[in-house]
Amino acid sequence: MRRKEREITDHAAMEEILGKAWICRLAMSADDQPYVIPLCFGYRNRTLYIHCAQEGLKIDLLKKNNRVCFEVDGDHEFVRGESACEWGMKGRSVIGFGRAHLINDPESKTRALDVIMEHYGAKGPFSYKEKGFEKALILKIEIEAMTGKKLG
Question: Which residues pair with 90 in a beta bridge?
Fold first, then answer.
């Protein structure tokens, strides 16, 4: 990171940012074409879990190249200044890299869906309707590296 004073290296601080974030932006690439999409997610033990459909562009791209980059952010505050150059933002973010794996076995899928539900504050135990459960696919992203940044 160019501006070291903004870098967050403390793993607990990055975990806090991940735990409070509502949206994960997932970037992937295949055939020299980048693609990024905002998604709901769950986080536990250096792993992101994302619920999605079993087909679509995201799945097609990940089958070709499972290397991904993700971004989450929070604690936003808009800062007004007297001149245009003094305007800005406060906040914190985490950017990470990893590999996405498609998970469809019922036991792993249930555990992943539970993590997602808990991420948004729901209390288990959870039950899932069979029809929707069968159609769902889980992206399990094993985080290989991540760094945090604070603004303001």
Answer: 77
